[in-house]
Structures are given as structure tokens and as C-alpha cells.
């Protein structure tokens, strides 16, 4: 049995819940993924252009189609904040 002097000093465990950032809205995550896709496509077009690849200009419609799909998805699936950031459980 532990002595009484040890029972008064309790160890308090912290889950660091106050240090965690608030949850990221799904729309923000989607925009970040799409920004990465734009950057990758622009880099690809730049590299193919520097190498003077004959079919490099065919990548421009791909970039435009990606932008159209991005705008369409944001327009169609806009959700209220209380559903998008709601708590699980």
C-alpha cells in the first residue's frame, strides 16, 4: 500500500484538448487539394514546354477542365457550416 504522503500528490494527465486547432471545414480541405492539383498541372505544362514537347499545348484544356470541375463541385455541394463541421458521435 502506498503511504499517505503519496496519495495527496496525484498525477494529472492532460489530453491537450485546448492546444488542438479547430476542425478544418471540408470545403477548405477540398480547395487545398485542388490548389495542389493546379500547381502540379502548371508544373507539368512548364516542364513539357521547356522540353519543347509537341503535344504540350494539349495540357491547357486539361487545366481549364479542372477549373470548371472545381467550380462546379463547389457550386453543387455547398453545405451549411453546422453540418460540415458538426461533431461526430
Structural write-up:
The structure is a single chain. The protein has 89 residues and is mostly helical. The protein has a domain at 22-78. It has four helices and no strands. The protein has helices at 4-7, 26-50, 59-76, 81-84. The longest helix is centred in the middle third of the chain and has 25 residues, at 26-50. The model has no long low-confidence stretch (mean pLDDT 78).
Please give a handful of descriptors for the protein shown.
mainly alpha; 4 helices; 89 residues
Layout of strands and helices, then pairs:
Blueprint: H1 4-7, H2 26-50, H3 59-76, H4 81-84
Helix pairs in contact: 2-3
Summary?
With 89 residues, the chain is mostly helical.
Amino acid at each position: 500500500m502506498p503511504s499517505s504522503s503519496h496519495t495527496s500528490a496525484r498525477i494529472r494527465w492532460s489530453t491537450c484538448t485546448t492546444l488542438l486547432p479547430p476542425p478544418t471545414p471540408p470545403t477548405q480541405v477540398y480547395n487545398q487539394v485542388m490548389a495542389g492539383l493546379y500547381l502540379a498541372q502548371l508544373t507539368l505544362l512548364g516542364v513539357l514546354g521547356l522540353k519543347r514537347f509537341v503535344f504540350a499545348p494539349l495540357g491547357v484544356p486539361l487545366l481549364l477542365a479542372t477549373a470548371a470541375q472545381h467550380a462546379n463541385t463547389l457550386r453543387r455541394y455547398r453545405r451549411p457550416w453546422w453540418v460540415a463541421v458538426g461533431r461526430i458521435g
